[in-house]
Design brief:
By secondary structure, this protein is of the alpha/beta class. It has 16 helices and 14 strands. It has an eight-stranded parallel β-sheet with strand order 7-6-5-14-13-12-10-8. The protein has a two-stranded parallel ribbon with strand order 1-2. Helix 3 runs parallel beside helix 5 and helix 6 packs parallel to helix 7.
């Protein structure tokens, strides 16, 4: 087909002085940060759903986005044209990865068999385009929330037939992810939660969710899929209470159900906000539990209490995110997936480039700023000094498990009073970070 973006060429790095809106000012894929190129460190991914399936609709208005390559139908022909447009966009953008839900790329049919046939047809084109461009699949997943059959949930449904359908759908999604060389598979429980406990057996639903994940692991092993499983935290919306509320809730679920080392987390900024946390908190909580697998890079509007999925342009945010990623030593096999959509008022196809360029530049700036902060040791040294009383004496005995309550009581009876506290110097540290930005 004709080019979907004929007026846009490959996006190049032109440096911070460039005035070209279709050029990177800060993301130079070959530039090294802490010994890795930005391409390998950030592992950028374009999401299929917002970028190639969003229409600009909202609860108050009809579609606005202009997508000349898409006729709006559920035909296979249209799905294949969409694949060609997607790979043209991702190639010109220079992102190495993409992500999708099964229903993003191929339409549902009148039966599961027909739906799987549709998916196979589109997966063949995806595989062909991957071979032509070198673009890889960061992760695949299944849409277990849009169809009315999932109104009560999928793995947590009260209907055994729906559970079986969801299992069949995930089985197929894992298989096509494997076929396409995907290096992760994501569980996003869009409707895995409840609205009212009067009609809900929470214990049973959580047990079913755990059983579902174990079955997924068993099937993945049986077909030789060695990719990383990821669980994505999200509070509320669409259910009043999601079982995957935040990183802590997900990790508790993982630990209690024998999934440690099997499932890590895919953490999203907008979901962290909805849970009442910062992205840095959610990522650090996952990291210290060896469970930070990948991130969805976006942001929400703090004036709106819902999932707006905007592109990240806040350098404070990206610097905080990169401080955690660099502390971990990177995200591979995960990556930085732009789970974000242009505003419904930004309806031209070229707006997709402006949005992604801004996000990629913001994370590149965050990476370089975070690396300078780490190189100077301004945070690490301060924190190490703040906890120095645990490095020796009674503090060291507490940390290594040698101290008991009786000994600590004797210690304080002899000493009489605790040593004076020192200032946490929050404002000073915030000023220090400002100096780097």
């Amino acid at each position: 087909m004709a080019e979907a973006f004929p007026d846009v060429g490959p996006i190049q790095y032109e440096g911070p002085d460039s005035k070209n809106p279709l050029a990177f000012k800060h993301y130079n894929p070959e530039e090294e940060v802490e010994g890795r190129t930005l391409r390998d460190l950030l592992r950028y991914s374009v999401c299929y759903w917002h970028t190639f399936r969003a229409t600009g609709t909202d609860p108050f208005g009809a579609a606005t986005l202009q997508r000349p390559w898409d006729d709006g139908s559920d035909s296979i022909e249209n799905a294949l044209r969409r694949v060609d447009a997607a790979f043209e966009f991702i190639s010109k953008l220079g992102a190495p990865f993409y992500c999708f839900h099964d229903r993003d790329v191929a339409p549902e049919g009148a039966s599961l068999a027909e739906t799987n046939k549709n998916l196979d047809a589109v997966v063949a084109r995806l595989k062909e385009k991957q071979g032509e461009t070198g673009i890889q699949l960061l992760w695949g997943t299944a849409n277990l929330f849009s169809h009315p059959r999932f109104m009560h949930g999928a793995a947590t449904t009260c209907n055994a037939d729906v559970f079986a359908y969801a299992a069949a759908q995930v089985k197929k999604a894992i298989e096509v992810t494997h076929e396409l060389g995907g290096v992760n598979y994501v569980f996003w429980g869009g409707r895995e939660g409840y609205h009212n406990l009067y009609n809900t057996d929470m214990q049973r639903e959580l047990d079913h969710l755990a059983r579902f994940m174990h079955m997924a692991k068993e099937h993945a092993q049986s077909i030789g899929f060695t990719g990383q499983f990821l669980f994505e935290p999200k509070p509320k919306e669409p259910t009043k209470h999601q079982y995957d509320f935040d990183a802590a809730a997900c990790l508790n679920f993982i630990g209690r159900n024998g999934l440690d080392g099997v499932v890590k987390l895919n953490v999203e900024t907008n979901h962290a906000t909805l849970a009442g946390h910062t992205m840095m908190h959610e990522m650090e909580y996952a990291r210290i539990h060896n469970a930070l697998g990948s991130i969805d890079a976006n942001t929400g509007d703090l004036l709106l209490g819902w999932d707006t999925d905007q592109f990240p342009t806040d350098i404070y945010l990206t610097t905080q995110v990169m401080l955690v990623i660099l502390k971990q030593g990177g995200l591979a096999p995960g990556g930085v997936n732009f789970d974000a959509k242009v505003r419904r008022e930004s309806f031209d196809p070229v707006d997709l480039f402006h949005a992604h360029i801004g996000g990629m530049d913001a994370f590149a700036r965050g990476a370089k700023i975070a690396a300078r902060i780490r190189a100077d040791g301004v945070l690490e040294d301060f924190v190490k000094n703040r906890y120095r009383t645990f490095d020796e004496g009674i503090g060291a005995k507490i940390e290594n498990g040698a101290a008991k309550f009786a000994e600590l009581e004797s210690y304080m009876l002899d000493k009489g009073e605790a040593a004076p506290n020192e200032s946490g110097r929050q404002e000073y540290l915030e000023n220090v970070i400002n100096d780097y930005l």
